[in-house]
Write the structure tokens for this entry.
Amino acid sequence: MVPEQQQLHSIGQATWRRDGQAKVTGAEEYVSDITLPRMWHARVLRSPYAHARIVHVDTSYAEALGAVCLTHADIPKIRYNERIVSTPPHLYRDRYVLADKARHVGEAIAAVAAPTEAAAEQALRALRVEYEVLETITDPEVAMWDGTEPIYTNVQLGDQELSIEHNIAVQRTIELGDIEHGFANSAVILEREFATSRIYHAQMETKGVVCRPESDGGITVWPTAQSIHNVRQLLGEIYSLPLHKINVKRVPIGGTFGSSIQMNSVIPICVGLTLKSGKTIKLVTTREEDMYDHVRYPSRIRLKLGATKDGLLTAGHMHALSDIGAHNTQAFAFLSVLSGWWASLYKLPAMKFEGKAVYTNKTPSCAMQGFGNPQATFAVESLMDDLADALGIDPVEFRLRNYVGLGGTFWGQGPSVQSIVLSDGVPELLEKGMEKIGWPGRPVSGSQTGRYRRGIGMARGFHTSGAGAPKPGEVIDYSGAFIKVNEDGTVDVVHALMDHGGGTLDAIAKIVAEELGIPSDRIGISPADTLTTVYDVVTHATRGVYAGGGAAHKAARKVKAILLDYASRVLGIETNALVIEPDETLGQGVIYCPSFPERRITVGALAKLCQTNSWGSIAAVESLRQVNCPPAYVAYFVEVEVDTETGSVRTVRAVIGSDCGTVVNPDLAVGQLEGGLSKGLGYALVEDNSWEQESGRLLSKGFWVDGKTPAMSESPLLEDIDTFFADSYEPSGPFGAKGIGEAATNPCAAAYGNALYNALGIRFTELPITPERIVASMVAAESGATKAVLV
Amino acid sequence: MTARTINLNVNGEHKEWSVAENDLLLTELREREGLTGAKYGCGIGECGACTVLVDGQPSLSCLVLAQSVDGCDVLTIEGLARGGELDPLQIAFLDQAAVQCGFCTPGMVLMGRALLNEIPDPTEKDVREFLKGNLCRCTGYSSIVRAILTHRR
Ligand code: FES
Ligand code: FES
């Protein structure tokens, strides 16, 4: 509930996004649009084999063409993990800038740079590589067999050597309470196996980087990245450069969805070429290269849940297996969060999680919108529906009895990141969602006949807002902001935070405007780079507004205190008696005393006075670690119509409710929910990525649309989508705000699965639920091969 | 490769380009003219990020040979706003928050403009059919459809 005294002038207002005009006119500059004087172009030689030893790389022909070449021999022999969000002891380091061995098709083996792109391409073709081809391992089960070719013999964990057995990159067991006891006291126990797919992020912009050598021996880097500071630190570590000589610029990013949470593989390659050649170099990947660079973690989850006859969960046991592909980018964290999302969905008196992450010769898996959450939520929310059915309890009621809400413990990023829930819009989301979808009128599951069958299903979930917690955990989480008031009363906010398109930086401006009492169009967001900003970990974990905004809020409070202090001198009024409010006529902030309204000064006049009197600048820099990780709850209610002859699924209606606390950018928040539906629907019904067993190549051969990114013509109609927000206030967030982005997609696939169950009486446990799978299951169900009932 | 000189109009300005047979319109616009509003998304006609209008018709510039636009009028996103005035459709995109990361936006706006030139009063189905070749991973398309439809009114 919003505190009554909270009256907001900037937060909650729909405004044109700050970068909007640049984006609609083509003026916005992404990495691929950057051209610098005397710039060379680079191309990367990628392995055509999924698993091969590199016997020899011959660069002589390429060099004879005038190209600069980079091979494994040229790069520092430092193993690293591209994602440095985990604390150092939890970093699994298994890769070099250029590979020592090819572990997946598309692995970077060598690189060339030349004055033009065409010359670089020619030089690339002149490289000769001799490979010794090894057994290709594409199945994670096979990977673990005795005698399977090891993809790694050892990697580095922190600064220790770690030997890898049976291609298992990492395992985790997390146990709380006595599950045997819990299951023994259950009236119903259900167990099922679920599988989710290795989809492609399909962000519109492929990865790229530009690197310029500086005359002092340093470099300036323009990368596609979600964190400029982590890119800088990692480059410093790999190339032994002092950080003050590495400037990483924030560049607008053409979508990411997690695909740039790590330092993209081309960044250090480009830097290596620059350091070797002394040239400014640009390296932009092709779509095919990008498709071989990253995918969402797939999962096979065996889940067992027990409940009493009153519908209270007793215990749970989850086995998870994930095929992480050729590199361990964040498998440890992935297993942690899988357990954490599960533990935070419903109260489990006893739980046991056993997870394994296994190397294969495929594109490396990395975080993608929800990081483990869509996977866990698909399994849990599917099984919750089945349990409700078995108990004869309404699925929504069953969830209300068991969910982790107000006062509960929420795991924001695995077991080491926990905090208490302080805001909870779940009852409102469920109640309104039921009403909007017409829940009471839904058919009895599996009762329909005829070609077209309709079903209504729901699922709920959340994402964390940041990875902060009272105790330091395995995850680094803090942000910083520097705010200064200019001599005309406008404000510059200097913040390293990335905006992936969700409007995070607009939110930051509104938060600062709100705190300072200055109209938000007087707040500027400065271009950012690592030389002029303080650390911000990375835009991930739905932390932008909550944690990044929290830091800006903290700095703004300090700036406000300075403003009031100076105003107190000028006006002869006690600081505590002064307020700042935006004045519409003047178009700026005014400081005054409500009891003596004639004692007033504009922020601009005050700032100018501070300058002319040489009192100093009005500015503050602050760092903030949030000590909470509030759940941003979401509920999905969907109605589908299935054509049982073709297996095609039409979304009749999708209702999406969000509890993001105070809504900061109302129209962009709706956009997050609509975008979440699109990606969730793709994940649920169509998107996939398959690898040829023998060759380890993508079956799509680098054709994007084969991955089935939903198109406009395949997306639900405007009138069929209904979004709404809970009346909610997060006490620990800036002006009551928490996150939204990743939450928007997490429960979507489960809601579709549950709606399909309602329509057909068939439980789909494998994503995507394609027309082929639907038709095959219908045929099987009709022939009695599988029962349209619970196990 | 034989270079040939072609004459064309780009955003209303006369241009004379010497282009090889395999030079692509997308590359010439981006590298020769610095018109980077047309984006490389796939290079093979799958995404629509490179859309420009050639004689008013939407074209995937990643698939168009530069020599083939000899004598044509090419409009890129940079040429849509005239004299600093945004096109009403660009305003509609901003009003409807139809821009997130913005990488698809130039292509979407130009497709929307081409549609509205052809059918001034399109239905939602018209919009979805006409723009189905332009991918957007951020918005789920609703806000883009809304922008084109509200502009209609
Ligand atoms: S870049 Fe031309 S269609 Fe994708
Ligand atoms: S706004 Fe990002 S791809 Fe459309």
Q: What stands out?
A: Residues A 204, 255, 501; B 99-104, 136-139 surround FE2/S2 (inorganic) cluster (ligand 2) (CB under 6 Å). The longest strand of chain A covers residues 313-325. The first helix of chain A runs from residue 20 to 25. Residues 786-791 of chain A have pLDDT under 50 and may be disordered.
